[in-house]
Amino acid sequence: MNIVFRVNASSQVGSGHLYRCIQVARSLNNKDKVYFICENLNKKLKDLIKINKIKLFILKKLPTSDYENTDYEATKNIIKKIKGKINLLVIDSYLLGIKWEKKIRSSVDKILVIDDLNRRHDCDFYLNQNLSTSKTLDKKLKKNTLKFIGLKYCIIKFRPEEKKRKVKKPYQIKKILIFMGGSDKSNLTYKILKILNENFFLKFKIKIIVGIDNKNYSLIKEFSKKRKNTKVYYNQKSLKNHILDSDIAISSGGTFIWECLFFGLPTLILNQSQNQVNNSKALYKKKAIKLYTNKLNDFKKMKEFLKQNLIKNNFVVPTKIFNLLDSKGVSRIIEKIKS
Asked: What pTM was estimated for this model as a whole?
């Protein structure tokens, strides 16, 4: 099969979309030919795609005024350069919608849309791995669209046999893991680090993961030197060992949350993007996470939220959620698409 992914990653949209598409691509058969079409990426993300032996096509920076039409023309022209029919186009972008999909349909055989926003789509396959799917979703998709909904189809890069942590009862917190996504556009890592540098929080050991598109890495690294028991790691290939070596995580509501839940790590969530809110609220209602709901620039309330939830580990990942995340989601999707 010829399979094309249309996906972006940047300091504004984050890198979660790209990482989950790479995970899907890595799970495909070796006989499948895979191509990524992206807007300009930084060198490290380009290298990541090349390491995974994926052919990359780069779109020039597109104007925001007529983005979808311009993107369609640019993407169509690249598709024409690929030998053979495109059997599957995978779209993972909040900037592209149903109008774009209808136009591109004549250039491809089937379309898979990965979306977290419950929008209208013209696609053959639809994936939304979140709990917050819309009750009116059926009306937003074609009748014959095959839907992959919920945690059963969650894209997780770990294998089932790696799931070593068991859901624990509440216990005293000693080690905190902080990761605010690939870009951390709100600079929350630095803000949280400043709070945890106050006397009350100095008893905790902290591991900070800085993402590949985080522009404040130097600032974070320099400030961390002022605090004992604080280590900073940049652009980690895997977060498994960091998760297993932590008692609780502090993160945004992006794709990292699934890794924490997979290993049963209790997590405090501070959403940085509007598209993260609905899923975080749904997880909070299921008591799978603790959710900060005040403004990100309210230093006082953020401090109280952290203080309240770090005194002790007063919640655990529900067993039902923990068991649903079996890391077989991608293989389930691929099996049904190719059947």
From this structure: 0.92
